[in-house]
Amino acid sequence: MRLILLLLTICASAQVKLPPYSKQTLPNGTTLILMPRAELPLTTVTAVFRGGAEAESVAGLASVTAELLERGTATQSAEQIALAFDSLGATLNTRASDSTLTIASEFLSRDTGRALPLLADLVQKPAFPEPEVKKVLAQFLDAAKSVKDDPQAAAGIAFRSFFYGPAHPSSRPVRGDESSLPKINREMIQQFQRRMLVGRNLTVIAIGHFTPTELLPQLTAAFSSLPAGEAYSPIADPGVPRSAKPRLLLIDKPDATQTYFFIGQPGIKRGHPDQVPLQLVNTLFGGRFTSMLNDELRVNTGLTYGANCQLTLNRLTGGIVISSFTKTETTERTIDLALNLLKKLNSTGVTSEALKSSKAYTKGLFPADRLETNDQLTQVLTELELNGLNRGEIDDLFSKIDAVTPERANAIAKTYYRGEGLVFVLLGNATKIREAVKKYAPEVTEMPIAKLGMEP
Amino acid sequence: MVRLLALAWLAALLLPAQNLALKKHQLANGMTVIIHEDHDIPNVALYFFYKVGSRNEKPGTTGVSHFFEHMMFNGAKKYGPKQFDIVMENNGGRNNGYTTRDVTVYQDWFAKPALDLILDMEADRIRDLAFDPKLVASEREVVYSERRLSVDNSPEGSLDEQLWAAAFTAHPYHWGPIGWPSDIEGWTMTDLKEHFSMGYAPNNCVLVVSGDVTETAALALVRKHLEAIPQRPGPTPVRTKEPQQKGERRVVLNRPAEIPFQMIAFHVPATSHADTPAIALLTTLLTQGRSSRLEQRLVERDQIALAVQADTNEAVDPTLWTFYLQLRAGIKTEQAEQALYSEFERLVNTPVSDDELKKAKSQFLASFYRQLKTLGGKANLIGNFEIFHGGADRLNEYAARIEKVTVADLQRVAKTYLTAQNRTVATLVPTKE
Predict the structure, then answer these.
(1) Residue B252: how many CB atoms within 10 A of its CB?
(2) In 3-state terms, what secondary structure has residue A68?
(3) Which of A271, A390, B121, B382 would you call most buried, defined as having the most Cβ atoms within 10 angstroms of its Cβ?
């Protein structure tokens, strides 16, 4: 493989439009969104509940609850549920994110009459059988342990925690860790479900091959008996304050032959007025193959297989995060180069030619990245709903992109890509790199990888 | 409980909608070109499949196909170093590539007005690739970093490498596309040039164009840019055949890890063989979805595994059917192995029910068609059918071949391949840091 696909957080567009959809509200507060698309004979129905991990009292509770929705209702066992979906060739996916709990199924449009009531049963009548609760918690615990076998993933989880700090929900390991999972029990799961999985928190998004006038009564029948409950009030944005001094966490994995690193600083939240220019600048800094970071750290020097910078664009303020990896011996050189590039972007900005390229790249790939499949469109509609945005975010994007001037882009580079108050997380062979990395922060916190996710 | 879906419904519903219209042409220089028109979004996926991979390598130069894939982005005559990526991104495009044991594939995704330009760049690098020693040195480091990421620092990656090395003793599937560390350090310029002249003949290439194009216009552009590139002899045939395995092989890997991992593999024929649909359905029946046999047995009932997966990779030569067991912490691998083997015995001794076969067919076909959601997914599937399944046209027959598989076929296939004599077991035994 030549390149691990960079996770882009590009999100807007213009000459292309979001396909038409309709939206209505049921008496219990549930929002229904229907977007007919005839390309494949498939329908995707996604139930999105607001809240997710930010509403949980213990890390992992929302994820465990989501998983258990598949594992038993008042009338069906876990095995029966699995068999029912598999027999239809349908998918069933449940998950929690920082701000949502979702349950989704994709099925043949022809099977709507069977699949929809099944899905609605899981949403409305979960039973949380005790043996399934025990089993799922044990599986989650082993999965949390196994993260340590994947150094890049382990470093990523550690970074979130160290960068965001306890006040910010993004600091949580969404699927829980070895200290949080043992604290979860069936009663907490039931309480979470009763409080959060209610009509006023629910948006159902249906996309696929259907006639809205036929599907609407089916969706209404399926989700109307969910209690309205109380609407969840999302927490206020705690922001991401810039650290007064640089901070560095070093995770020791003695057998690692390369160092994985993350370098973060404050970013913005979704819908911020700086979003589009910031995305264009970030594409040039670390969002594509020819970006400054990948060009220098991979193409010019061969120090790594890949380097990037990601923007997190959620309801709550996120980060601007450089990440890469290199062999143990070149750790210092690689981080130094990344920091030099950060300085260079801040001081010299981007050329108008580069900005033009970033615009063409973003617009050219936008349809394939965001509007091609039902899954992508579901994601777009979910984000619009959660962030209180409308279709203008998509439909006006190209004109917003066109409007970004080089002066604006350079002001953005100066404001957001800064050298002070950086937060570093490194995972590697500490014995070999400890001395060299001290220069990045006045205080270095060190922990063995075994302690990751354990009680401090 | 919901009644099982009759396959006929699924077939009746999906097949007419999913018959992919494919237009196949051969250029005068022998390059195969397959065009699929899809006007859903204003984009194009362009995939070049070169029929050269690590099976065409020799000891000493293992990994050179993959290294070469990287070098294809480092400059040619008209578009110099970095230009391929810069020009593509300037014009609303992105690219990647991958190398397997059998093929090297180059993927371009872009806004449709760029088709002419992208073909010009592709022709340039196929015709006039440059070999700059400085770039070779730097790219060697990049590839080593990729190896450290995907093999050396990955328990699964290291175990997989050991599994294939044990299962194949004679055939070049013995090594993986990434190559052995000492070979990555040792490739010479001559190795690279020889590889290029062997593998990158136009007559050794299948080009798939999938997206918002018309057949006539796309073909005209393809001809304009690629048809004049001269034909050359392709790779010499791989003569070595893997001798039949005559007894179980076991390999153990000790390394720091939290969770034990096992890979258990069986030799099976090449993808073009008549048993491929039955093997695919057995893989589905055993591991796809929570109701599958191995999920139910190992993950849900016995609770000895965290995850169970299985696959056969598409391959020109006889290959492996591999079962992956990520165990629960503290579970003895012997226990998981025994549970797996008892499920295989059950398949051999007791025919599966018609309902269970129907379920597997529905699941398989639904997954198969899900690959068609994107232009890139379509291009990949079309190319794979052209190379591994005996022709792109067979893509549209595949559902019918799946339908024809019987309960007796499944039993026979299980009995033929899932035997102790035919298996290789690779076990990761965690040690403390």
Answers:
(1) 12
(2) helix
(3) B382
- Contact criterion met (CB < 8 Å) for B42 and A367: yes
Q: How far apart are CA A90 and CA A108, in angstroms?
A: 7
What are the pLDDT digits (tens) for B92-124? 999 999 999 999 999 999 999 999 999 999 999
How far is the C-alpha of B154 from the C-alpha of B160, rounded, in Å? 10
Q: Counting every residue, how long is chain A?
A: 456
Give the relative orientation of helices A275-286 and A331-348 as an angle to the nearest 10 degrees.
Answer: 140
State the DSSP string of A105-144: EEEEGGGHHHHHHHHHHHHH-B---HHHHHHHHHHHHHHH
A contacts of B43 (beta carbons < 8 Å): 364-365, 367-368, 372
Report whether pLDDT(A11) > 70.
Answer: no
d(CA B352, CA B412): 12
Residue B364 main-chain phi, psi, to 5 deg: -65, -45
For residue B71, give the chain A residue with the closest CA. A2
Q: Which chain B residue has its CA at the smallest distance from A2's CA?
A: B97
pTM over 0.80: yes
CA pair distance A296, A343, nearest whole angstrom:
14
- Nearest Cα of chain B lies from the Cα of A3 at a distance, in angstroms, of 6
What is the spatial distance between Cα B175 and Cα B158, in angstroms, rounded to a whole number?
12
Interface size A-B, in CB pairs within 8 Å, comes to 221
Q: Which residues pair with B4 in a beta bridge?
A: none
> Mean per-residue pLDDT for A387-396?
92
* Min Cα separation A362/chain B (Å): 7
